[in-house]
Amino acid sequence: MQINNEFKPKIVAFCCNWCSYAGADLAGTNRLNYPADVKIIRVPCSCRVNPMFILRAFQRGADGVIICGCHPGDCHYTSGNYYARRRITLLFSMLDYLGIERERTRLEWVSAAEGAKFSATMNEFVETVTKLGENKRLEDLRCKAE
Amino acid sequence: MQSRMIERAKQLLADGTVNRVIGWKKGEFAYDITPAVFESAEEIDKDFVYDDFCGHNLSKYLIKESRKEGKLLAFLKPCDTYSFNQLIKEHRIIRENVYIIGIACDGKADAEKIKAKGISGITGISSDDDTFTVKTIYDDEKISKSEVLEERCTVCKSRKHAVYDELIGDEGEVNENSGRFDMVTKLENMTADERYTFWRNELSKCIRCNACRNVCPACSCENCVFDNPNSGIAQKSAATSFEENMFHIIRAFHVAGRCTDCGECSRVCPQNIPLHLLNRKFIKDINELYGEYQAGVEDEGRTPLTSYTKDDCEPSIVNERGCK
Lengths: 146, 324
Prior knowledge:
The complex is a heterodimer of chains A (146) and B (324).
Chain A: E1 11-16, H1 20-29, E2 38-43, H2 51-59, E3 64-69, H3 80-97, E4 105-109, H4 115-132
Parallel strand pairs in A: 1-2, 1-3, 3-4
Helix pairs in contact in A: 1-4
Chain B: H1 2-14, E1 20-25, E2 34-38, H2 41-47, H3 61-65, E3 72-76, H4 78-89, E4 98-103, H5 111-116, E5 122-127, E6 131-136, E7 141-144, H6 145-148, H7 151-154, E8 166-168, H8 182-188, H9 192-203, H10 211-215, H11 241-254, H12 264-268, H13 276-290, H14 317-320
Parallel strand pairs in B: 1-3, 3-4, 4-8
Antiparallel strand pairs in B: 1-2, 5-6, 6-7
Protein backbone atom coordinates (compact mmCIF):
# COMPACT_ATOMS: atom_id res chain seq x y z
CA MET A 1 0.00 0.00 0.00
CA GLN A 2 1.23 3.45 -0.84
CA ILE A 3 0.71 6.42 1.42
CA ASN A 4 0.41 9.71 -0.30
CA ASN A 5 2.14 12.41 1.70
CA GLU A 6 1.36 15.17 -0.71
CA PHE A 7 -0.13 18.24 1.02
CA LYS A 8 -3.84 18.56 0.52
CA PRO A 9 -5.23 21.87 1.76
CA LYS A 10 -8.54 22.17 3.56
CA ILE A 11 -10.61 24.88 2.03
CA VAL A 12 -13.82 26.24 3.47
CA ALA A 13 -16.16 27.93 1.04
CA PHE A 14 -19.05 29.97 2.40
CA CYS A 15 -21.61 30.02 -0.38
CA CYS A 16 -24.70 32.11 -0.49
CA ASN A 17 -27.83 30.00 -0.84
CA TRP A 18 -29.29 31.96 -3.74
CA CYS A 19 -26.39 32.38 -6.15
CA SER A 20 -23.12 30.68 -5.38
CA TYR A 21 -24.58 27.51 -3.88
CA ALA A 22 -26.71 27.15 -7.00
CA GLY A 23 -23.59 27.97 -9.01
CA ALA A 24 -21.79 25.09 -7.33
CA ASP A 25 -24.76 22.90 -8.12
CA LEU A 26 -24.58 23.94 -11.75
CA ALA A 27 -20.88 23.12 -11.83
CA GLY A 28 -21.87 19.66 -10.60
CA THR A 29 -24.65 19.06 -13.10
CA ASN A 30 -22.36 20.30 -15.87
CA ARG A 31 -19.72 17.83 -14.67
CA LEU A 32 -17.14 20.55 -14.18
CA ASN A 33 -14.40 19.47 -11.86
CA TYR A 34 -13.32 21.25 -8.78
CA PRO A 35 -11.10 19.81 -6.05
CA ALA A 36 -12.65 17.74 -3.31
CA ASP A 37 -10.60 19.79 -0.81
CA VAL A 38 -13.26 22.45 -0.96
CA LYS A 39 -15.89 22.06 1.74
CA ILE A 40 -18.94 24.14 1.06
CA ILE A 41 -20.92 25.71 3.87
CA ARG A 42 -24.25 27.07 2.77
CA VAL A 43 -25.25 30.43 4.24
CA PRO A 44 -28.44 32.37 3.54
CA CYS A 45 -26.47 35.36 2.28
CA SER A 46 -22.83 36.38 2.06
CA CYS A 47 -23.75 38.96 4.69
CA ARG A 48 -24.42 36.11 7.11
CA VAL A 49 -20.71 35.41 7.25
CA ASN A 50 -19.63 36.82 10.57
CA PRO A 51 -15.89 37.60 10.62
CA MET A 52 -15.73 35.13 13.48
CA PHE A 53 -16.83 32.34 11.12
CA ILE A 54 -13.76 32.94 9.03
CA LEU A 55 -11.46 32.90 12.03
CA ARG A 56 -13.20 29.85 13.45
CA ALA A 57 -12.66 28.03 10.15
CA PHE A 58 -8.94 28.76 10.42
CA GLN A 59 -8.98 27.68 14.05
CA ARG A 60 -10.52 24.36 13.15
CA GLY A 61 -7.85 23.66 10.60
CA ALA A 62 -8.83 25.35 7.36
CA ASP A 63 -5.91 26.42 5.18
CA GLY A 64 -7.96 28.81 3.13
CA VAL A 65 -11.37 30.45 3.32
CA ILE A 66 -13.34 31.71 0.37
CA ILE A 67 -16.62 33.55 0.53
CA CYS A 68 -18.94 33.44 -2.46
CA GLY A 69 -22.03 35.58 -2.88
CA CYS A 70 -24.36 37.07 -5.42
CA HIS A 71 -22.94 39.80 -7.64
CA PRO A 72 -23.40 43.28 -6.19
CA GLY A 73 -26.87 44.42 -7.12
CA ASP A 74 -28.23 40.86 -7.36
CA CYS A 75 -28.60 40.12 -3.65
CA HIS A 76 -31.73 38.17 -2.80
CA TYR A 77 -32.10 40.44 0.21
CA THR A 78 -31.36 43.57 -1.84
CA SER A 79 -28.30 44.82 0.00
CA GLY A 80 -26.73 41.98 1.98
CA ASN A 81 -23.69 41.61 -0.20
CA TYR A 82 -22.97 45.34 -0.09
CA TYR A 83 -22.65 45.16 3.67
CA ALA A 84 -20.64 41.95 3.38
CA ARG A 85 -18.27 43.63 0.94
CA ARG A 86 -17.29 46.35 3.38
CA ARG A 87 -17.02 44.01 6.33
CA ILE A 88 -14.97 41.39 4.52
CA THR A 89 -12.67 44.00 2.99
CA LEU A 90 -11.83 45.35 6.43
CA LEU A 91 -11.31 41.89 7.86
CA PHE A 92 -9.00 40.84 5.02
CA SER A 93 -7.08 44.04 5.44
CA MET A 94 -6.72 43.39 9.16
CA LEU A 95 -5.49 39.83 8.61
CA ASP A 96 -2.96 41.20 6.17
CA TYR A 97 -1.93 43.80 8.76
CA LEU A 98 -1.30 41.06 11.30
CA GLY A 99 1.01 39.37 8.84
CA ILE A 100 -1.26 36.50 7.88
CA GLU A 101 -0.89 35.49 4.24
CA ARG A 102 -3.49 37.42 2.32
CA GLU A 103 -3.78 34.71 -0.33
CA ARG A 104 -5.54 32.46 2.16
CA THR A 105 -8.66 34.56 2.12
CA ARG A 106 -10.71 35.51 -0.86
CA LEU A 107 -14.10 36.80 -1.84
CA GLU A 108 -15.65 36.03 -5.20
CA TRP A 109 -19.04 36.89 -6.67
CA VAL A 110 -20.55 33.83 -8.35
CA SER A 111 -24.04 33.83 -9.78
CA ALA A 112 -26.32 30.80 -10.17
CA ALA A 113 -25.50 30.74 -13.88
CA GLU A 114 -21.73 30.72 -13.38
CA GLY A 115 -20.96 27.06 -12.80
CA ALA A 116 -17.87 27.41 -14.91
CA LYS A 117 -16.67 30.40 -12.91
CA PHE A 118 -17.26 28.52 -9.67
CA SER A 119 -15.19 25.57 -10.80
CA ALA A 120 -12.42 27.76 -12.22
CA THR A 121 -12.28 29.91 -9.07
CA MET A 122 -12.07 26.90 -6.81
CA ASN A 123 -9.37 25.25 -8.91
CA GLU A 124 -7.34 28.41 -8.86
CA PHE A 125 -7.85 29.04 -5.14
CA VAL A 126 -6.90 25.49 -4.18
CA GLU A 127 -3.78 25.78 -6.29
CA THR A 128 -2.81 29.05 -4.57
CA VAL A 129 -3.36 27.65 -1.09
CA THR A 130 -1.53 24.42 -1.93
CA LYS A 131 1.49 26.51 -2.87
CA LEU A 132 1.28 28.41 0.43
CA GLY A 133 1.16 25.17 2.35
CA GLU A 134 -0.27 24.53 5.74
CA ASN A 135 -1.85 27.36 7.68
CA LYS A 136 0.61 27.99 10.49
CA ARG A 137 -0.06 31.56 11.46
CA LEU A 138 -3.69 31.23 12.36
CA GLU A 139 -3.88 27.72 13.70
CA ASP A 140 -5.05 26.38 17.01
CA LEU A 141 -2.88 23.50 18.13
CA ARG A 142 -5.66 22.11 20.31
CA CYS A 143 -7.79 21.64 17.23
CA LYS A 144 -5.18 19.78 15.21
CA ALA A 145 -5.90 16.13 14.57
CA GLU A 146 -3.81 13.41 16.25
CA MET B 1 -9.34 74.06 37.11
CA GLN B 2 -10.19 71.66 39.92
CA SER B 3 -11.51 74.42 42.17
CA ARG B 4 -13.68 75.85 39.39
CA MET B 5 -15.09 72.40 38.72
CA ILE B 6 -15.85 71.77 42.38
CA GLU B 7 -17.47 75.16 42.73
CA ARG B 8 -19.68 74.63 39.69
CA ALA B 9 -20.60 71.08 40.72
CA LYS B 10 -21.69 72.30 44.14
CA GLN B 11 -23.78 75.08 42.58
CA LEU B 12 -25.58 72.64 40.31
CA LEU B 13 -26.16 70.24 43.19
CA ALA B 14 -27.46 73.04 45.38
CA ASP B 15 -29.93 74.47 42.87
CA GLY B 16 -31.27 71.02 42.10
CA THR B 17 -30.27 70.87 38.42
CA VAL B 18 -28.52 67.59 39.10
CA ASN B 19 -28.57 65.14 41.97
CA ARG B 20 -25.29 63.36 41.27
CA VAL B 21 -21.89 64.22 39.88
CA ILE B 22 -19.59 61.83 38.07
CA GLY B 23 -15.95 62.71 38.25
CA TRP B 24 -12.65 61.42 39.56
CA LYS B 25 -11.88 60.32 43.06
CA LYS B 26 -8.60 60.28 44.93
CA GLY B 27 -7.10 56.87 45.37
CA GLU B 28 -4.49 55.50 47.66
CA PHE B 29 -1.76 57.15 45.62
CA ALA B 30 -1.79 60.37 43.66
CA TYR B 31 -1.74 58.50 40.35
CA ASP B 32 -4.24 55.92 41.51
CA ILE B 33 -7.41 57.75 40.58
CA THR B 34 -10.79 56.11 40.00
CA PRO B 35 -13.98 57.38 38.43
CA ALA B 36 -16.69 57.91 41.04
CA VAL B 37 -20.17 59.27 41.54
CA PHE B 38 -20.59 61.97 44.19
CA GLU B 39 -23.95 62.64 45.75
CA SER B 40 -23.28 65.55 48.08
CA ALA B 41 -21.12 68.62 48.47
CA GLU B 42 -19.35 66.98 51.42
CA GLU B 43 -18.33 63.99 49.32
CA ILE B 44 -17.03 66.31 46.64
CA ASP B 45 -14.99 68.30 49.16
CA LYS B 46 -13.55 65.14 50.54
CA ASP B 47 -12.52 63.17 47.47
CA PHE B 48 -13.10 65.00 44.19
CA VAL B 49 -9.93 65.48 42.19
CA TYR B 50 -9.01 66.63 38.71
CA ASP B 51 -5.39 66.71 37.68
CA ASP B 52 -3.07 65.39 35.01
CA PHE B 53 -3.55 61.79 36.08
CA CYS B 54 -7.30 61.86 35.38
CA GLY B 55 -7.19 60.12 32.04
CA HIS B 56 -10.23 57.90 32.52
CA ASN B 57 -13.00 58.23 29.99
CA LEU B 58 -16.21 58.71 31.97
CA SER B 59 -18.60 58.20 29.07
CA LYS B 60 -19.02 54.49 29.52
CA TYR B 61 -20.27 54.89 33.09
CA LEU B 62 -23.09 57.07 31.78
CA ILE B 63 -24.75 54.08 30.12
CA LYS B 64 -25.83 52.80 33.51
CA GLU B 65 -25.85 56.11 35.37
CA SER B 66 -28.12 57.88 32.90
CA ARG B 67 -30.75 55.20 33.48
CA LYS B 68 -31.01 55.99 37.16
CA GLU B 69 -33.33 58.44 38.83
CA GLY B 70 -32.62 62.12 38.26
CA LYS B 71 -30.11 64.13 36.31
CA LEU B 72 -26.38 63.61 36.49
CA LEU B 73 -23.53 66.03 36.02
CA ALA B 74 -20.66 64.63 33.99
CA PHE B 75 -17.28 66.21 33.44
CA LEU B 76 -16.05 65.23 30.00
CA LYS B 77 -12.72 65.86 28.35
CA PRO B 78 -12.71 66.40 24.58
CA CYS B 79 -12.02 62.76 23.71
CA ASP B 80 -14.69 61.61 26.18
CA THR B 81 -17.27 63.73 24.40
CA TYR B 82 -16.66 61.81 21.18
CA SER B 83 -17.42 58.56 22.99
CA PHE B 84 -20.45 60.20 24.54
CA ASN B 85 -21.81 61.25 21.16
CA GLN B 86 -21.21 57.80 19.73
CA LEU B 87 -23.14 56.24 22.60
CA ILE B 88 -25.99 58.70 22.06
CA LYS B 89 -26.03 57.62 18.43
CA GLU B 90 -26.35 54.01 19.53
CA HIS B 91 -29.15 54.90 21.97
CA ARG B 92 -27.10 53.74 24.92
CA ILE B 93 -27.18 56.93 26.97
CA ILE B 94 -30.31 58.90 27.83
CA ARG B 95 -29.23 62.41 26.88
CA GLU B 96 -31.87 64.24 28.94
CA ASN B 97 -30.49 62.74 32.12
CA VAL B 98 -26.97 64.03 31.65
CA TYR B 99 -25.68 67.55 32.11
CA ILE B 100 -22.28 67.81 30.48
CA ILE B 101 -19.56 70.21 31.49
CA GLY B 102 -16.80 70.12 28.93
CA ILE B 103 -13.39 70.54 30.46
CA ALA B 104 -10.27 71.53 28.59
CA CYS B 105 -7.47 69.00 28.45
CA ASP B 106 -3.81 69.50 27.61
CA GLY B 107 -2.86 65.86 27.64
CA LYS B 108 -2.65 63.45 30.52
CA ALA B 109 0.45 62.05 32.17
CA ASP B 110 1.26 58.37 32.10
CA ALA B 111 2.19 57.38 35.65
CA GLU B 112 4.10 54.33 34.42
CA LYS B 113 6.33 56.48 32.23
CA ILE B 114 7.00 58.82 35.15
CA LYS B 115 7.90 55.92 37.39
CA ALA B 116 10.12 54.48 34.69
CA LYS B 117 12.14 57.68 34.94
CA GLY B 118 13.09 56.69 38.46
CA ILE B 119 10.71 59.05 40.18
CA SER B 120 9.09 57.48 43.19
CA GLY B 121 6.91 58.60 46.06
CA ILE B 122 4.65 60.65 43.83
CA THR B 123 2.21 62.78 45.80
CA GLY B 124 0.79 65.06 43.16
CA ILE B 125 1.14 66.59 39.74
CA SER B 126 0.62 69.96 38.15
CA SER B 127 1.39 71.28 34.72
CA ASP B 128 2.02 74.36 32.67
CA ASP B 129 2.54 74.75 28.92
CA ASP B 130 5.05 72.02 28.26
CA THR B 131 6.22 70.67 31.60
CA PHE B 132 4.73 68.54 34.30
CA THR B 133 5.78 69.28 37.85
CA VAL B 134 5.61 66.04 39.78
CA LYS B 135 5.47 66.46 43.55
CA THR B 136 7.10 63.66 45.43
CA ILE B 137 7.87 62.97 49.06
CA TYR B 138 11.47 63.92 48.26
CA ASP B 139 11.51 66.85 45.90
CA ASP B 140 9.56 68.36 43.06
CA GLU B 141 10.62 67.04 39.67
CA LYS B 142 10.12 68.87 36.41
CA ILE B 143 9.65 66.71 33.33
CA SER B 144 9.00 67.79 29.79
CA LYS B 145 5.48 66.83 28.76
CA SER B 146 6.51 65.10 25.56
CA GLU B 147 8.45 62.52 27.55
CA VAL B 148 5.69 61.28 29.83
CA LEU B 149 2.42 62.01 28.03
CA GLU B 150 0.16 59.08 27.36
CA GLU B 151 0.59 57.81 23.81
CA ARG B 152 -2.89 58.92 22.76
CA CYS B 153 -2.19 62.45 24.02
CA THR B 154 1.03 62.79 22.05
CA VAL B 155 -1.08 62.34 18.91
CA CYS B 156 -4.18 64.13 20.20
CA LYS B 157 -6.78 64.24 17.44
CA SER B 158 -8.94 66.97 18.89
CA ARG B 159 -9.11 69.40 21.76
CA LYS B 160 -12.52 70.50 20.64
CA HIS B 161 -15.55 69.12 22.48
CA ALA B 162 -18.02 67.29 20.28
CA VAL B 163 -20.85 68.04 22.70
CA TYR B 164 -21.34 69.97 25.96
CA ASP B 165 -23.88 71.97 27.91
CA GLU B 166 -21.32 74.34 29.29
CA LEU B 167 -17.59 74.68 29.17
CA ILE B 168 -14.85 75.24 31.74
CA GLY B 169 -11.58 76.37 30.20
CA ASP B 170 -10.91 77.26 26.59
CA GLU B 171 -12.29 75.40 23.60
CA GLY B 172 -9.48 73.84 21.57
CA GLU B 173 -9.14 72.94 17.92
CA VAL B 174 -9.40 69.74 15.92
CA ASN B 175 -5.90 68.67 15.01
CA GLU B 176 -5.94 67.40 11.43
CA ASN B 177 -2.25 66.55 11.40
CA SER B 178 -1.97 64.65 14.65
CA GLY B 179 0.14 61.96 13.03
CA ARG B 180 -1.79 59.25 14.80
CA PHE B 181 -1.59 56.94 11.80
CA ASP B 182 2.19 57.17 11.45
CA MET B 183 2.86 53.94 13.30
CA VAL B 184 0.15 52.13 11.32
CA THR B 185 1.79 53.28 8.10
CA LYS B 186 5.15 52.15 9.39
CA LEU B 187 3.76 48.68 10.08
CA GLU B 188 2.08 48.56 6.68
CA ASN B 189 5.43 49.19 5.07
CA MET B 190 7.02 46.22 6.77
CA THR B 191 7.02 42.81 5.14
CA ALA B 192 4.35 40.29 6.16
CA ASP B 193 6.92 38.31 8.14
CA GLU B 194 8.07 41.37 10.06
CA ARG B 195 4.48 42.32 10.82
CA TYR B 196 3.72 38.81 11.96
CA THR B 197 6.72 38.83 14.29
CA PHE B 198 5.78 42.27 15.60
CA TRP B 199 2.24 41.22 16.44
CA ARG B 200 3.27 37.88 17.90
CA ASN B 201 5.62 39.73 20.24
CA GLU B 202 2.88 42.11 21.27
CA LEU B 203 -0.13 39.84 21.42
CA SER B 204 1.65 36.98 23.14
CA LYS B 205 1.92 39.28 26.17
CA CYS B 206 -1.86 39.24 26.49
CA ILE B 207 -3.08 37.73 29.76
CA ARG B 208 -6.74 37.98 28.73
CA CYS B 209 -7.69 40.13 31.67
CA ASN B 210 -10.36 41.68 29.42
CA ALA B 211 -9.54 45.16 30.72
CA CYS B 212 -9.50 46.53 27.18
CA ARG B 213 -13.00 45.23 26.63
CA ASN B 214 -14.33 46.39 29.97
CA VAL B 215 -13.03 49.92 29.66
CA CYS B 216 -13.97 50.48 26.02
CA PRO B 217 -16.92 52.87 25.66
CA ALA B 218 -17.80 51.21 22.36
CA CYS B 219 -17.80 47.71 23.91
CA SER B 220 -21.12 48.14 25.63
CA CYS B 221 -22.90 44.89 24.81
CA GLU B 222 -24.54 43.38 27.84
CA ASN B 223 -23.76 39.89 26.64
CA CYS B 224 -20.30 39.80 25.19
CA VAL B 225 -19.30 37.11 22.73
CA PHE B 226 -16.13 36.51 24.71
CA ASP B 227 -18.15 35.43 27.74
CA ASN B 228 -19.74 32.64 25.77
CA PRO B 229 -17.94 29.38 26.56
CA ASN B 230 -18.88 28.11 23.11
CA SER B 231 -17.14 30.95 21.33
CA GLY B 232 -13.96 28.88 21.33
CA ILE B 233 -12.06 31.73 22.94
CA ALA B 234 -13.46 31.94 26.44
CA GLN B 235 -10.28 30.84 28.13
CA LYS B 236 -9.10 33.33 30.67
CA SER B 237 -5.49 32.98 29.81
CA ALA B 238 -4.40 32.43 26.29
CA ALA B 239 -4.04 28.77 25.59
CA THR B 240 -2.62 29.12 22.09
CA SER B 241 -1.49 31.93 19.84
CA PHE B 242 -4.76 31.57 17.99
CA GLU B 243 -6.83 32.79 20.90
CA GLU B 244 -4.73 35.90 21.24
CA ASN B 245 -5.08 36.71 17.58
CA MET B 246 -8.77 35.90 17.52
CA PHE B 247 -9.54 37.89 20.65
CA HIS B 248 -7.81 41.00 19.43
CA ILE B 249 -9.04 40.85 15.85
CA ILE B 250 -12.62 40.37 16.98
CA ARG B 251 -12.38 42.96 19.73
CA ALA B 252 -11.12 45.53 17.26
CA PHE B 253 -13.60 44.43 14.61
CA HIS B 254 -16.58 44.78 16.92
CA VAL B 255 -15.76 48.43 17.42
CA ALA B 256 -14.70 49.14 13.83
CA GLY B 257 -16.51 52.19 12.54
CA ARG B 258 -17.63 53.04 16.06
CA CYS B 259 -14.26 53.43 17.73
CA THR B 260 -13.58 57.10 18.44
CA ASP B 261 -9.90 56.38 19.09
CA CYS B 262 -10.11 57.51 22.70
CA GLY B 263 -7.18 55.25 23.50
CA GLU B 264 -8.56 53.77 26.71
CA CYS B 265 -7.74 50.21 25.63
CA SER B 266 -4.03 50.94 25.46
CA ARG B 267 -4.09 53.00 28.62
CA VAL B 268 -5.51 50.21 30.76
CA CYS B 269 -3.55 47.34 29.24
CA PRO B 270 -1.42 45.95 32.08
CA GLN B 271 0.90 44.41 29.50
CA ASN B 272 1.29 47.59 27.46
CA ILE B 273 0.10 46.05 24.22
CA PRO B 274 -0.40 48.84 21.65
CA LEU B 275 -4.06 47.97 21.07
CA HIS B 276 -4.77 51.34 19.53
CA LEU B 277 -2.76 50.22 16.50
CA LEU B 278 -5.47 47.68 15.70
CA ASN B 279 -8.27 50.19 16.08
CA ARG B 280 -6.40 52.80 14.10
CA LYS B 281 -5.82 50.36 11.27
CA PHE B 282 -9.59 50.02 10.90
CA ILE B 283 -10.06 53.78 11.15
CA LYS B 284 -7.35 54.35 8.57
CA ASP B 285 -8.85 51.77 6.20
CA ILE B 286 -12.30 53.27 6.57
CA ASN B 287 -10.92 56.74 5.89
CA GLU B 288 -9.09 55.56 2.82
CA LEU B 289 -11.71 53.26 1.36
CA TYR B 290 -15.04 54.73 2.40
CA GLY B 291 -14.27 58.38 2.98
CA GLU B 292 -13.06 60.33 5.99
CA TYR B 293 -15.02 59.37 9.05
CA GLN B 294 -14.55 60.24 12.69
CA ALA B 295 -16.89 58.41 15.02
CA GLY B 296 -18.52 60.58 17.65
CA VAL B 297 -18.49 63.88 15.77
CA GLU B 298 -22.21 63.54 15.19
CA ASP B 299 -24.85 61.96 17.35
CA GLU B 300 -26.96 60.58 14.51
CA GLY B 301 -26.51 58.97 11.12
CA ARG B 302 -25.01 55.70 10.01
CA THR B 303 -21.57 54.34 10.65
CA PRO B 304 -19.39 53.12 7.76
CA LEU B 305 -20.10 49.47 8.50
CA THR B 306 -23.84 49.93 8.68
CA SER B 307 -24.02 51.67 5.34
CA TYR B 308 -22.71 51.06 1.84
CA THR B 309 -22.45 52.54 -1.60
CA LYS B 310 -22.96 50.61 -4.80
CA ASP B 311 -19.48 51.31 -6.06
CA ASP B 312 -17.48 50.35 -2.99
CA CYS B 313 -14.12 48.76 -3.68
CA GLU B 314 -13.85 44.97 -3.84
CA PRO B 315 -11.96 43.05 -1.13
CA SER B 316 -9.28 42.31 -3.72
CA ILE B 317 -8.10 45.88 -3.08
CA VAL B 318 -6.26 44.40 -0.10
CA ASN B 319 -4.07 42.51 -2.57
CA GLU B 320 -3.62 45.43 -4.91
CA ARG B 321 -3.07 48.18 -2.40
CA GLY B 322 -2.38 46.12 0.72
CA CYS B 323 0.56 46.14 2.96
CA LYS B 324 3.86 45.09 1.49
